[in-house]
Amino acid sequence: MSESRGSGSVDVERLTAALSGLGVRPGDVLLVHASLRSVGAVAGGPVAVLAALRRAVGRAGTVVVPAFTPENSDTSPHYRARVRGLDAPARAAVRSSMPPFDPALTPAPSMGALAETVRTAAGARRSGHPQTSFAAIGPGAAKLLAGHRPTCHLGEESPLARLYEADAGILLLGTGYDTCTAFHLGEYRRPGAPLRRYRCVVAPQGVRRWWEYEDVALDDGDFAALGAAFEEAADPGDVTTAPIGSAPCRLIRLRAATDFATAWLTAHR
User: Fold this and answer.
1) Residues in CB range of 103: below 8 A, 6 or more apart
2) Alpha carbon of residue 143 to chain centroid
3) Residue 246 and residue 35: Cα distance in Å, rounded?
4) pLDDT number for residue 110
5) What share of the chain is helix, strand, coil (3-state, %, to 5)?
6) Cα 136 from chain centroid (whole Å)
7) What pTM was computed for the model?
8) Among 31, 80, 125, 136, whose Cα sits 20 to 30 Å from the Cα of 114?
9) Nearest CA among 175, 172, 210 for reference residue 38
10) Which domains occur in the chain, in start order?
11) H or E, element range at 161
12) Which residue pairs, CB below 8 angstroms and at least 24 apart, start in 116-122?
């Protein structure tokens, strides 16, 4: 992301207009998945993108992003990739170096520049799950992020369910359906969802320890196919598409996407 106004770059005003043209409205609650590299050069970088999002949703609107932290888990694909090929002592050294989750301090590097910009913005809030926290800024942030139960990644006691209740929109800003977190809520809502064990580093009362718990087995491997089926079957207004900068973008109704995902996953898994 460029930090200066260059040839072909877009600025806050043009981004705001593009978001409004896509269908973002004042007062919206908006769950954003962004690839700023796909969007291209933006004068002001990620800070300007957040400014445009906040202008588009207005003073009454709220911007939400995933702030997930697979880096502090030894049951995550991130960890498995990190230790692939290492011997046992080297794996043990990696595990011992993994910092515990702190909602106020732990970064979310794998979530991208916009997520980090929201997480660190003045007035932003973050939910407390040590693996799948969300960050939000706006008047609805506290209510949307409250009560994120540590043993519920993305189900009924997570911000996703609160976003469903709020009739939120999903903005895929240069990303595809494979990043559509709301589909995970459909995993929880399908009958007989399989469970698995998860483990991560936490520090209650400042004491570092490993914590293991059981939750729904999350799997986004078929989300691209699910998204294509959803878009083909979507009612008018459930999905709007338009380019923003250099990126193809979608604005999606979260309830419609989740309801479709619940049925599709029940039928296809």
Assistant:
1) 126, 127, 128, 133
2) 17
3) 11
4) 94
5) 40, 20, 40
6) 10
7) 0.94
8) 80
9) 175
10) 12-68+101-268 (3.40.50)
11) helix 159-165
12) 116/46, 117/46, 117/47, 117/49, 117/50, 118/32, 118/50, 118/63, 118/65, 118/67, 119/65, 119/67, 121/50
pLDDT in tens, the chain (269 residues): 333 334 467 899 999 999 999 999 999 999 999 999 999 999 999 999 999 999 999 999 999 999 999 999 999 999 999 999 999 999 999 999 999 999 999 999 999 999 999 999 999 999 999 999 999 999 999 999 999 999 999 999 999 999 999 999 999 999 999 999 999 999 999 999 999 999 999 998 899 999 999 999 999 999 999 999 999 999 999 999 999 999 999 999 999 999 999 999 999 99
Contact 49, 30 (CB under 8 A): no
Q: Quickly tell me which residue has 């989740």 as its tokens.
A: 258
Q: Are 154 and 188 in contact (CB under 8 A)?
A: yes
Give residue for tokens 């590097």: 109
Instruction: Return the DSSP state at 192.
Output: T
Q: Tell me the three-class secondary structure of 84-116, residue by residue.
A: CCCCHHHHHHHHHHCCCCCCCCCCCHHHCHHHH
Provide the sign of the torsion angle of the four alpha carbons 245, 251, 257, 258, taken in this order.
Answer: positive
What is the C-alpha to C-alpha distance for residues 233 and 70, in angstroms, rounded to an integer? 33
* Residue the block writes with tokens 């990303």: 175
